[in-house]
Amino acid sequence: MHENKDTPPAPPLFTWEFAADPYPAYAWLREHAPVHRTALPSGVEAWLVTRYADARQALADQRLSKNPAHHSESAHGKGKVGIPGERSANLMTHLLNIDPPDHTRLRRLVSKAFTPRRVAEFAPRVQELTDQLIDAFIEKGEADLIHEFAFPLPIYAICDLLGVPREDQDDFRDWAGMMIRHGGGPRGGVARSVKKMRGYLAELIHRKREELGEGGDDDLISGLIRASDHGEHLTENEAAAMAFILLFAGFETTVNLIGNGVYALLRNPGERERLQRALAEGDESLLATGVEELLRYDGPVELATWRFATEPITLGGQRIAAGDPVLVVLAAADRDPERFAEPDTLDLSRRDNQHLGYGHGIHYCLGAPLARLEGQAALATLLRRLPDLRLAADPEELRWRGGLIMRGLRTLPVEFTARI
Ligand code: HEM
To answer: According to the UniProt record, where is the region Disordered (predicted)?
Structure first.
């Protein structure tokens, strides 16, 4: 089961070839080294967990802390784990970096403001944004679906939801663009963008607090300020970190859901045709199961965010020392043949599809209803309005973004019959 002298050496991880198709390497790890210690490109050593059962267990294990202070290398590994720029901008106290009881309190407060109802009411605006973005390129007969569609949609959506005024949203587009372009590369520009975003959010939160009760305050930031639990409120600093994590967690993930999703459909014409036919007949059920399947098949979050053992633990038969980082490889777990029949096949009507694309346990994705709404609207509208959509590049030449946690394309050139 584990690596021994008869097992061939582990395939290379985190290279460009690996980024284009990590699944064969993950299949190897699942079989030969399901809990595998490796050096990451940053130099930090971490355990990769690749089997579904181990992954699910690790995601729910309270002995694995989200607080980077538990990292045994936290003194000299400073800045190498977590979100680039978050330390310098004082944004550390957000949901993905904390454990109960703080996590429980903050999650309860944000859940009072970020409700399924608020998301459902937002559906017409998401549809409007989707159509506007398509209107802007439909006359050309070609587009880069990442830059012209998948990238702007979630940033405008989350800005609208938070209550960032429309005239400031292009600043967010620029800052987010910097984060997504350089997420796995130089950190200076990213840290500056994070700082600017943080400064802007702090000011916005302050202003919204002053203006509370004066009307026009039904946005999510005002909701966060108003939310209270047993008389407790978020501090301005907590509200800023919360707004930031909503932006950060809800942005590149959704870009990749749309990008990876469209790409998978274009590469699986039979499934794409099935979906297109169902939509034409007014049947949306395949759209709902289809987006879940796309999340399982080639999801936006390749590795769940950092976890650190607070005490020695055994996972998948492997001893993990206190202070060691553990990275749960969602992309590997979701292709585990022990859990999913024919895991490498895209089946949009797959039943029994409890994938880990949104995580599991107390950190389960808070934005899943919004992600589903955006993913379904984006895919359905593209297929309806651009019925002959096709790839305008050799798949071999498409580049995937570097970076550890997320998985997504840099560009997705497409062509279709132009409409005036
Ligand atoms: C957490 C995936 C969209 C907000 C997570 C986690 C995953 C995930 C895997 C858990 C990470 C971990 O345990 O280490 C996704 C995917 C998305 C998506 C695949 C899109 C397709 C969104 C959106 C928002 C959002 C749109 C909000 C606007 C969050 C937040 C957390 C989270 C706040 C932290 C929850 C906590 O720690 O309690 N997401 N996400 N996500 N997500 Fe998402």
So the answer is: 63-84
Prediction ipTM score: 0.99
Q: Is the CB of 82 under 6 A from ligand 1?
A: no
Return the CATH number at 262.
1.10.630.10
* Nearest C-alpha neighbor of 400 from the set 23, 5, 10: 23
* Whether the CB of 363 sits within 6 Å of ligand 1: yes
Alpha-carbon span 398 to 411, nearest angstrom: 7
Q: Tell me the per-residue pLDDT of 75-100, one tens digit each, with 9 for 90 and over.
A: 545 556 666 666 655 667 789 999 99
Domain that holds residue 215: 16-415
Contact between residue 205 and residue 239 where contact means Cβ atoms under 8 Å apart: yes
Q: For 297-317, write each residue's pLDDT tens digit.
A: 999 999 999 999 999 999 999
What is the DSSP-derived secondary structure letter of residue 77? S
Q: Distance between CA 24 and CA 35 in Å, rounded?
A: 16
Query: Worst-scoring range by mean pLDDT, 82-91, 216-225, 278-287, 314-323?
Result: 82-91
What pTM was estimated for this model as a whole? 0.94
Residue 365 Cβ < 6 Å to ligand 1: yes
Report the nearest atom of ligand 1 relative to the CA of 305: 14
Number of domains in the chain: 1
The answer to the question of residue 5 being in a domain is: no
